[in-house]
Amino acid sequence: MQTDTHADNRSYRLLDLYKRLQQGEALSKRELADQYRVSEKTVQRDIEGLREYLAGEQSYLEVVYDKEAGGYRISRESAEGLQPEEVFAVCKILLESRPFPKAVMQRLLGKLLSQVSREKRDVVEKLIAQETHHYTEPQHGRDVIPALWRLAAAIREQRITSFSYTRLDGVCHERVVKPVAILFSEFYFYLIAYYADDSADYPIVFRIDRMEKISVKKERFSVPYRERFKEGEFRKRIQFMYAGELRRITFTYSGCSLEAIRDRLPTLRVLKEEAGIYTLMAESYGKGIEMWLRTQGEEVQVLEVCRG
């Protein structure tokens, strides 16, 4: 039971009401009136005040009356908020992509699950329980979220950025670059950048978990509008996260799942089809596309590779 001092303080009542609703309680006006030692009309005014506040904030939260529970509760399932099935889908993507250490993953999953009602939260938690328990974090074990945010600011503000970079062979180099995009692919986040001295005229790919001592400089770089880096278009051409010149590859495909090839190579064009054999062309930066095509067995035959 609340003290008389608190009960007489509307601000306290509203905060307490909001906290308890957020925790998933279903609250009846009569019980609240008894606890706060006010009338039910006063409680109703408090509830309406909370509703007005949430509406003014364009929140996805809404105070509703639940007949089954016999009290007011917070609904997190308005059009603006995440639906339980949407939270489930995002949780699955996070768990399958394995981008973060286990502690970070658990924190993010908890925040996602808090977007739905307690009842639906229990359902989603049970659906992902096995994957969460057996989650295998990436070998680097680093929380890259702070670095992602710093690099995103450098990209937005077009600032020269320096860092120490350790390659796969363990060799460390100091790099100074013009950062232009952050991409994610197969467990890792990548920074896409150009060397600040323009020593290469194609984008370079850096794995962010291998970057140390990131320093965003005051110096800015400019990108003329017509030459502005188009992240969406670039993403279509760097499916394999290899730096290098743009390659245009023509090949034949005799398999039964052209759809899978299209999903892997967004720039794919069908040049012709004859007797179930497709002649295809795709563009990609670096040698990754050639390496991938060689793993496809007899169904793929490379006809031509054009660079630049």
Automatic annotation (TrEMBL):
Q: Which UniProt keywords apply?
A: Transcription, Transcription regulation
Which SUPFAM superfamilies does this UniProt record tie to the protein?
Winged helix' DNA-binding domain
Q: Which InterPro entries match?
A: CBASS_pafABC_assoc_protein, DeoR_HTH, HTH_11, WH-like_DNA-bd_sf, WH_DNA-bd_sf, WYL_dom
Q: Which residues form the HTH deoR-type domain?
A: 10-74
Drop me one GO molecular function for this one.
DNA-binding transcription factor activity
Which Gene3D superfamilies does its entry note?
Winged helix-like DNA-binding domain superfamily/Winged helix DNA-binding domain
Please give the PANTHER family that the UniProt record associates with this protein.
Answer: PROTEIN PAFC, PTHR34580
> What is the name listed in the Swiss-Prot or TrEMBL entry for this protein?
HTH domain protein
Lineage runs: Bacteria, Bacillati, Bacillota, Negativicutes, Selenomonadales
